[in-house]
Design goal:
401 residues, mainly alpha, Growth Hormone, Chain: A
């Protein structure tokens, strides 16, 4: 089945209208245009070093993390539909504000708010889509959701590179209207049955939801895996473009094309995860994904040209797709508080992005890209050890019952 037919099929089964999947695609497209576009924008307009770029990205990730964790009780008072509307509207204004008010300190403030606004979008969306679903039905929805936003991620790097070749501010100028168009589409959605606030759902199980929590312990090693994968992805999105231009002689469009290849393999991975079930409730794929990530980080310092990174980023895209899907599936399965579990998933991967962008930018500025990859290797190895301890503890706990 083609990716287009998968999207069409998923649209027909969507509660509350058939537009949330394409909206997530456009929102991811706009997010990618802002994230990569800011890297080029900061380099050309402010001559910002890698440390500043990494710090800016870490600021955005930190606010997203706070929005998904500590500040979640505030936003949880909104229904999913209203939360999505507020998020899209704010994101449109913020993207245009960064472009129209050229100030580096103000860019830090606005980009932090950009991260917080997205915390009002992704967790409520996935909590809404997965409501009352388990097993294969849940896996299908996760696959369709991942395919929709990853399609936007596929398009955004190359499009951003092409736009930035003409003018570094073009990606920011076009992302704002995309977000605002999504806000209009969300506003016109009819109220969906069961679309109540997280606080209301906590007072009692909603229609079709579980009345008793039956979560799996595999969510914990899966969260470790998604943390490690996104630390590496964060470096490749925020620090690697600077390295590729400075040391590999790459153009902006070439960097965008390379990141597009990674995104294509992410989407391929999501399709494979949606069609397979052998990895459900099984620990060895989680451990294997962590091992592959460690091997990739060990080999990255050996790359001497942009072509060397093509197979590495393709494999990294597959690892990211599996770790993301596993974290969502094992986190949401059996839970009666799905939006909260999605918030934990998003906060975990975002913490990995914070560490990757912040520490990666600092290390690159004061050492080298090879040392950055060794840092990511250390994170992957430590993560594998933590996963092994979690599995051992879970087995002991099960044996003592």
């Amino acid at each position: 089945m083609s990716s287009l037919s998968v999207i069409r099929r998923s649209l027909r089964g969507l509660q509350g209208g058939g537009v949330l999947y394409p909206i997530s695609l456009v929102m991811a497209l706009g997010s990618g245009m802002v994230n990569l576009g800011l890297v080029f924008y900061l380099r050309d307009f402010y001559q910002a070093p890698a440390g500043v770029i990494g710090s800016l990205s870490a600021c955005q990730f930190l606010m997203y993390f706070l929005g998904c964790s500590l500040l979640r009780p505030l936003s949880g008072r909104l229904s999913p539909q209203r939360s999505l509307l507020v998020a899209a509207s704010c994101l449109g204004g913020i993207a245009l504000g960064i472009r129209l008010v050229p100030s580096l300190p103000l860019t830090f403030v606005l980009y932090g708010l950009f991260g917080y606004a997205f915390s009002l979008f992704w967790p409520p969306l996935m909590g809404w889509l997965s409501m009352g679903l388990e097993g294969k039905a849940l896996n299908r929805v996760i696959a369709h959701y991942n395919l929709s936003w990853s399609s936007g991620v596929i398009i955004s790097p190359y499009l951003t590179g092409l736009l930035a070749q003409h003018h570094p501010a073009l990606p920011l100028a076009l992302a704002g209207p995309l977000f605002l168009a999504c806000a209009v589409a969300i506003f016109k959605l009819p109220p969906a049955p069961g679309a109540v606030s997280m606080r209301d759902r906590q007072e009692g199980a909603g229609d079709g939801e579980l009345s008793r929590d039956a979560s799996t312990h595999l969510r914990f090693p899966a969260w470790v895996g998604v943390f490690s994968a996104y630390a590496a992805i964060s470096v490749m999105i925020t620090i690697f473009p600077v390295y590729a231009q400075e040391h590999l002689g790459s153009s902006k469009s070439q960097v965008g094309l390379l990141l597009l290849i990674r995104a294509l393999f992410v989407a391929l991975g999501f399709m494979l995860m949606g069609r397979t079930h052998f990895w459900h409730f099984t620990i060895w794929p989680i451990l294997l994904g962590q091992a592959v990530l460690a091997v990739l980080m060990a080999l990255m310092p050996l790359a001497r040209s942009l072509a060397w990174f093509i197979p590495a980023l393709a494999l990294l895209g597959l690892v990211m797709a599996y770790q993301n899907t596993s974290s969502v599936f094992h986190g949401v399965t059996g839970s009666v508080r799905r939006e909260r579990r999605m918030a934990i998933h998003e906060a975990t991967l975002t913490f990995g992005q914070i560490l990757g962008a912040g520490a990666g930018g600092f290390i690159y500025q004061h050492a080298s890209m090879a040392v950055v990859f060794l840092f990511l290797l250390a994170l992957a190895v430590l993560g594998a050890g933590l996963q092994a301890l979690m599995v051992r503890y879970a087995k002991r706990a099960a044996a003592s019952r």
